[in-house]
C-alpha cells in the first residue's frame, strides 16, 4: 500500500512538473469528486441517532470519497501508461533513428562528404656541392653533390569554376529513413606558373570521404587524359609534372559519388581566392528548407530551379581570404508514420484534458441531482444518502469508462495506421467515427445541454487539438492554451448555471406534489 501511494504521489509530482495546467485541472476534478461526497448535509434523523452514529456516517462518507478519488487516480495512472506505451511501441516501429543504424548505412552507402579544394605545391631542385675538409691536412677534401629543394610560395590559381549537383536519395535501415544523397561533381581550375623559371609541381586533389565510392572519374589537363598518371594515396589524387615558366594549365576533374546528411566544401590553404565560383544545384530542396552546416558561409545568391521544386546556390569569391566552408546540410527525410507519430505525441495532453472535463461534467450533473432531491424532499434521509452515493459512483464509473474508450481510440489510430493507408485513411475510417460515436453516447448518458457541451468538448479536445497541434508543430502551445482556456471557461459556465438553476428552483410546489403522491 505504501509503495502504491508513493508511486501515485510520484506520478502526481511528475504531472505537475511536465503539465502544470493539466495537473491543476485533474487535481480540481478529483477534489470536486471528494467534496461532492462530503457535501451532503447532515439530516435531522442522523442527529437524533447519537454522536457515534453521526461519526460513523461521516467516516463512511470520508472513506467513500477517498475510494472514488483513488479509483479515478489509479485509472489515470494506468491509462496514461497505456497511452505512453502505445506511443513508444509506435515510435519503435516507425522512424526510430539510432546511431548504430546510421553508421551501418554509412558503411554501406557512404559517409558525410567534405570536399577540400585542390592544393598545388611548387618547387625547384638545385644541385649543390658540399666540401668537407679532412682533419688530416695530408688528405684531400671530400666533395659531395646533393639536391636541395626550394619551395616556391607563389599562388598559381587564377580561376575556379565548380559545379555540383546533389540529389537526395534517402536510405532505409530498420524502421527509419536516413538522409542519403547522390552527387555529380565537376571541378575546373585555371592555373599558371607565375615564376620566372621552370618549376616542379605536385597537384593534390583530396577525395571527399575516405570510404567513399567514386564512379565515372575523369581527370584532364589541357584537354588530355591524365588519370593514368595520377597516384592514389593518402585518400587523394596526386599529379606530379614539370611546369614551364609562364605555362597555363586547365585542370578538370569530375566524378559521381554518394554520401550522407551533409556536403561540405572548403579552401583550406591560406591563400588568396581569385575568381572562384561554386554552383551547388539541389533539385529537390526548396529554399525554405535550406540549412548551412556549422562553419559554413551563406551563399552569395540563391535562385529556384526551373521546376520551382529545388534551389541553386551560388558562391562567388574574388580576391578573398576565407577559411569558412560552403555546403548544405540536408533536411531530415520524412519518416514512416511521421504524421501519425506527430498526432500521437499530443494525445497524452489531449486525453488528460478530456479526462478532467469528463469528471467535472459528470460530477456537476450529480450535484444538481442531489440538490434537487434535497429541495423537493421526495426521499428519506437514508434513501437520499444511498442515492447520492449511487450517483457519485455512477459519475466516477462513467468517467472511467469514457476515459478508457478515448485511450483505446488513440491506440486504434496507432494500430490501424499501417493497415488503412496511414494517418488520413485511419482518421477517416476509424479515428473520427470512433469519437463521433463516443460523443453520441455522451449525449445519451448526459442528456440536455450538459451532454451537448461534453460531446462538443470531447470532439474539440480529442480530435481537433491533437490533429492541429501534431500537424502544425510550431504552434503546439497555442492550440493547447486555447483548449485549456476553453475548458476552464466552459466548466465555469456550467458551474454557475447549475448553481443558478438550483437556487431559483421553486420549492413549495414540488413538495406539495410529492406529498400528494
Explained architecture:
The protein has 517 residues and is an alpha+beta fold. The protein folds into 2 domains: 2-94 and 338-516, no CATH class; 113-329, Immunoglobulin-like (Sandwich). The chain has 12 helices and 18 strands. The strands form 4 sheets. It has an 8-stranded mixed beta sheet, with no helix packed on it. Strand 16 (301-304) and strand 17 form a beta hairpin. The protein starts with a helix and ends with a helix. The relative contact order is 0.11. Residues 370-380 and 501-517 have low confidence and may be disordered.
The SS-based structural class is alpha+beta
**Number of folding domains?**
2
Discrete helix count: 12
Strand order of the largest sheet: 10-9-13-7-4-15-17-16
Note the run of SSEs as H and E. HHHHHEEEEEEEEEEEEEEEEEEHHHHHHH
Specify the biggest β-sheet.
8 strands, mixed
Q: What general form does the structure show?
A: elongated
- Beta-strand residue fraction: 15-25%
Number of strands: 18
State Rg: 39 Å
Distance, first to last CA: 50 Å
Low-confidence stretches: 370-380, 501-517
Query: What's the mean pLDDT score?
Result: 86
- The amount of helix comes to 40-55%
Structural features:
single chain, Immunoglobulin-like, eight-stranded mixed β-sheet, elongated, 517 residues, alpha+beta
Helices and strands in order:
Elements: H1 2-18, H2 20-38, H3 44-48, H4 51-93, H5 99-108, E1 113-116, E2 119-132, E3 142-152, E4 157-168, E5 171-173, E6 176-178, E7 180-192, E8 199-206, E9 215-221, E10 224-225, E11 231-233, E12 236-243, E13 248-260, E14 262-266, E15 276-282, E16 301-304, E17 311-317, E18 325-329, H6 338-344, H7 347-376, H8 381-416, H9 422-445, H10 449-471, H11 476-503, H12 508-516
Parallel strand pairs: 1-14, 4-15
Antiparallel strand pairs: 2-3, 2-8, 4-7, 5-6, 7-13, 8-12, 9-10, 9-13, 11-12, 14-18, 15-17, 16-17
Helix pairs in contact: 1-2, 2-4, 2-7, 4-7, 4-8, 6-10, 7-8, 7-10, 7-11, 8-9, 9-10, 10-11
Amino acid at each position: 500500500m505504501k509503495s502504491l501511494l508513493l508511486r501515485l504521489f510520484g506520478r502526481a509530482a511528475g504531472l505537475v512538473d511536465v503539465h502544470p495546467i493539466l495537473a491543476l485541472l485533474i487535481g480540481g476534478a478529483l477534489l470536486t469528486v471528494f467534496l461532492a461526497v462530503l457535501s451532503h448535509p447532515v439530516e435531522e434523523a442522523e442527529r437524533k441517532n447519537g454522536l457515534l452514529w453521526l461519526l460513523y456516517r461521516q467516516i463512511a462518507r470520508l472513506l467513500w470519497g477517498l475510494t472514488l478519488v483513488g479509483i479515478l487516480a489509479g485509472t489515470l495512472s494506468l491509462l496514461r501508461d497505456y497511452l505512453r506505451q502505445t506511443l513508444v511501441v509506435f515510435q519503435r516501429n516507425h522512424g526510430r533513428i539510432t546511431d548504430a543504424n546510421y553508421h551501418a548505412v554509412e558503411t554501406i552507402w557512404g559517409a558525410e562528404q567534405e570536399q577540400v579544394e585542390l592544393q598545388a605545391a611548387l618547387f625547384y631542385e638545385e644541385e649543390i656541392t658540399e666540401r668537407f675538409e679532412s682533419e688530416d691536412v695530408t688528405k684531400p677534401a671530400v666533395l659531395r653533390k646533393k639536391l636541395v629543394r626550394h619551395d616556391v610560395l607563389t599562388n598559381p590559381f587564377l580561376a575556379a569554376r565548380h559545379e555540383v549537383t546533389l540529389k537526395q536519395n534517402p536510405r532505409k535501415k530498420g524502421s527509419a529513413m536516413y538522409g542519403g544523397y547522390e552527387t555529380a561533381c565537376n571541378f575546373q581550375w585555371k592555373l599558371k606558373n607565375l615564376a620566372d623559371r621552370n618549376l616542379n609541381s605536385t597537384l593534390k586533389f583530396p577525395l571527399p570521404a575516405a570510404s567513399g565510392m567514386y564512379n565515372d572519374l575523369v581527370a584532364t589537363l589541357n584537354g588530355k587524359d591524365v588519370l593514368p598518371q595520377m597516384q592514389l594515396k593518402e585518400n587523394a589524387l596526386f599529379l606530379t609534372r614539370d611546369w614551364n615558366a609562364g605555362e597555363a594549365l586547365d585542370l578538370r576533374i569530375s566524378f559521381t559519388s554518394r554520401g550522407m546528411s551533409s556536403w561540405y566544401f572548403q579552401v583550406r590553404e591560406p591563400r588568396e581566392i581569385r575568381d572562384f565560383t561554386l554552383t551547388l544545384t539541389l533539385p529537390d530542396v526548396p529554399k525554405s528548407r535550406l540549412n548551412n552546416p556549422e562553419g559554413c558561409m551563406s551563399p552569395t545568391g540563391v535562385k529556384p530551379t526551373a521546376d520551382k521544386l529545388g534551389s541553386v546556390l551560388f558562391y562567388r569569391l574574388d580576391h578573398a581570404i576565407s577559411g569558412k566552408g560552403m555546403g548544405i546540410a540536408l533536411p531530415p527525410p520524412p519518416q514512416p508514420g511521421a504524421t501519425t507519430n506527430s498526432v500521437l505525441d499530443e494525445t497524452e495532453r489531449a486525453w488528460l484534458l478530456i479526462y478532467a472535463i469528463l469528471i467535472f461534467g459528470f460530477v456537476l450533473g450529480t450535484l444538481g441531482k442531489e440538490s434537487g432531491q434535497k429541495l423537493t424532499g421526495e426521499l428519506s434521509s437514508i434513501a437520499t444518502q444511498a442515492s447520492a452515493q449511487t450517483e457519485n459512483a455512477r459519475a466516477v464509473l462513467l468517467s472511467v469508462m469514457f476515459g478508457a474508450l478515448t485511450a483505446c481510440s488513440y491506440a486504434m489510430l496507432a494500430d490501424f495506421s499501417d493497415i488503412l493507408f496511414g494517418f488520413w485513411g485511419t482518421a477517416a475510417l476509424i479515428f473520427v467515427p470512433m469519437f463521433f460515436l463516443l460523443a453520441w453516447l455522451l449525449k445519451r448518458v448526459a442528456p440536455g445541454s450538459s451532454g451537448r457541451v461534453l460531446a462538443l468538448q470531447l470532439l474539440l479536445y480529442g480530435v481537433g487539438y491533437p490533429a492541429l497541434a501534431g500537424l502544425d508543430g510550431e504552434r503546439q502551445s497555442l492550440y493547447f492554451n486555447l483548449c485549456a482556456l476553453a475548458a476552464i471557461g466552459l466548466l465555469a459556465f456550467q458551474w454557475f448555471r447549475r448553481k443558478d438553476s438550483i437556487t431559483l428552483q421553486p420549492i413549495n410546489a414540488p413538495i406539495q406534489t410529492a406529498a400528494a403522491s
